[in-house]
Write a structure and sequence with these properties.
Chain lengths: 194, 83
């Protein structure tokens, strides 16, 4: 795993050097490599597909524009995740504070799933349970206070070590630990009341 | 209100972060074996985590990469062309 990661970092640095020489195609390869992870984090942060796509794309654009500032001794994933989470946090701050408790926005996953269930009628129970679980995850994550949500997403969806989460969010390790603890505590309490 | 020592809760989180010393873990396990209230908290934390881990990986939509490329500034490629 470590070895693979190392090889990946080398490949990325190679591509970055090509981008620095003006080859835009090399950047496309970087986007292909990271698109799903970046989109997923943005989606979990924002709980909205359109916004996640917009913000994740914007993160790549900013990375491209600022690629000369990236220190190749560091991990590219940390750098691009930092750009993306900062953009997500800005976006969340611009919203109404009660946004996450709001009902589904038309066209998003939740509504589609419910309408699918209604239309299909007699789906196997385990399938319905699975769908509900995914919807429930969205809901529970959305209910978390912002500062816990970001650490919990990086910890449990991206499965990143605490130190790396600190590097991404530019927080000291102690603060990351505290937020992960409180985030878990908040989740436990949320889930216990349902 | 839980009247158990606060450090037990800290140990639970340290355990979940795999950041616990063996003697602390022993103390935690002993406590959990004897305290149903704390055991319930620990179970709740572990359930929340496994619940999160059951989330499906969501992929970027089709056309995502092309969308990024379309949004890139044009100037950069001109710099390349000047080489």
């Amino acid at each position: 795993m470590e070895r693979r990661r190392y090889a990946l970092d080398e490949l990325i640095n190679k591509r970055i050097n090509e981008v620095l020489k003006g080859k835009q195609d090399a950047f496309e390869e970087i986007v292909i490599l990271f698109q799903h992870r970046l989109y997923h984090v943005c989606y979990r942060m924002l709980n909205n597909k359109q916004e996640a796509e917009d913000i994740a794309q914007e993160a790549f654009v900013r990375a491209y524009i600022n690629i000369h500032t990236f220190d190749q001794k560091r991990k590219f994933s940390t750098w691009i995740f930092r750009i993306a989470t900062n953009l997500c946090i800005d976006r969340i701050r611009k919203k109404k504070p009660d946004y996450h408790l709001d009902a589904e926005v038309p066209g998003t996953e939740g509504l589609t799933m419910y309408s699918q269930i209604a239309a299909a009628g007699d789906l196997p129970e385990e399938q319905i349970e699975k769908m509900e679980a995914q919807e429930r995850i969205r809901y529970e994550i959305g209910r978390l206070p912002d500062k816990y949500r970001s650490v919990i997403i990086l910890r449990y969806f991206e499965e990143l070590p605490l130190q790396e989460i600190g590097d991404i969010l530019e927080l000291p390790l102690g603060t990351v630990k505290t937020r992960v603890h409180r985030g878990r505590e908040a989740l436990r309490k949320q889930m216990g009341t349902m | 209100m839980n009247t158990c020592p606060e450090k037990i809760i800290d140990y639970m989180h340290a355990y979940l972060d795999e950041d616990i010393r063996p003697e602390e873990e022993r103390e935690l396990q002993e406590h959990l074996a004897n305290c149903s209230e704390c055991k319930e908290i620990m179970d709740g934390l572990e359930e929340s985590i496994s619940f999160l881990k059951s989330a499906t990986q969501i992929k970027a939509p089709a056309g995502f990469v092309d969308g990024v490329i379309a949004r890139l500034p044009k100037e950069k490629s001109q710099v390349g062309a000047q080489r």
